[in-house]
Amino acid sequence: MKIGNIELGDRPVFFAPMEDISDPSFRRLCKEYGADMMYTEFISSDGLIRDAEKSLRKLNIADYERPVGVQIYGKHIDAMVEAAMRCEESNPDLIDLNFGCPVKRVAGKGAGAGLLQNLPLMIEITKKVVEAVKIPVTVKTRLGWDETSKPIVELAEQLQDVGIDALTIHGRTRKQMYRGEADWTLIGEVKNNPRMTIPIIGNGDIINPEIAKEKFDIYGVDAIMIGRGAIGKPWIFRDVKHYLNKGELLLPLNVPEKVELAKRHLKYSLEWKGDITGVFEMRQHFSNYFKGLRDFKKTRIRLVTETDPEILVQILNEIAVNWGDC
After folding, report:
1. Are 244 and 5 in contact (CB under 8 A)?
2. Complete domains list, the chain, with CATH
């Protein structure tokens, strides 16, 4: 599979862009475990062209991540074009346009999945961005706005016609948010539409290797994208690729292995964000890494309230000893 001139091999597995999750420290872990394509957290086009510090920081990418895409969102043509051009200056491998974010502060203002209610504007934004940059442009979107409006088959053709290099489809409507099951049938229709020539990437509810293989086998997608399935489990990319290639399941990580992973993640987070923010933003990850351990409540509270990195490492070492058989 190729996106533009980016060679991604057979049945690649992508790591989805997720706000407050796919930061450089977590992306680094996912890459170490075999993710084939990385994306930044999504970036506001308006914030980027105003030189907002938070938006600018998200443009920082490392060579070890490649291939890596920068994802932007917005509803104004000029702002999206200018933002795309600024992103191109940071030398990513591609630019991804977010037309799928369902959260109210984005979709409710007409950006992200909100553009599923204004398809002519979505197409025009895409056309102008494609014309403005020299690197590949891709799109991530959903099936439609709600159950009464799922235009993805026709929309995919229109997006291809204005020049995108690949399309990622999340198998839910905006109204569903992240509830219910993802519907892959329309993703399959897009992929099997004889008019479609660009790669189609399927996204939604891929939480283990067996499901990943099923999506490839049944729907024929060119790649899959894993989002929430990687939270607390970045090794899912290794497991999926091993299963696709060898047909066998790997043993899950034990607690001491998760502890070493958590310490490595903490180190990356501190390097990227400093002691205060680096510790604070690790809290959700600590909870997810050790979810399900028996009699863990008191230790979990210590993990998510401690502010000293050295003490956090001590707590993690205690977990390896006290739950070492799990």
Report:
1. no
2. 2-246 (3.20.20.70), 255-322 (1.10.1200)
Q: Rounded distance, CA 45 to CA 76, Å?
A: 9
Cα separation, 108 vs 73, whole angstroms:
13
Choose the catalytic residue: 30, 87, 101, 326: 101
In total, the chain counts a number of residues equal to: 326
Whether residue 30 lies in the annotated active site: no
**What contacts 24+ positions apart, CB below 8 Å, involve 317-325?**
317/259, 319/255, 319/259, 319/290, 320/255, 320/256, 320/259, 320/260, 323/255, 323/290, 323/293, 323/296, 324/254, 324/255, 324/256, 325/255
Q: Residue 65 and residue 322: Cα distance in Å, rounded?
A: 35
pTM for the complete prediction? 0.93
- The per-residue pLDDT for range 242-273, each reduced to its tens digit, is 999 999 999 989 999 999 999 999 999 999 88
Token pair of 96, please? 């991804």
Where do runs of H (alpha helix) occur along 204-282?
A: 209-219, 236-246, 255-280
Q: How far is 226 from 194, CA to CA, in rounded Å?
A: 26
Nearest Cα to Cα of residue 284 among 268, 308, 266, 310? 266
Q: Are 224 and 212 in contact (CB under 8 A)?
A: yes
> For residues 326 and 19, which has the higher predicted lDDT (pLDDT)?
19
Spell out where the chain has E strands: 2-3, 6-7, 13-15, 38-39, 43-44, 68-73, 94-99, 137-144, 166-173, 200-203, 223-226
Token readout for 294 is 């028996």
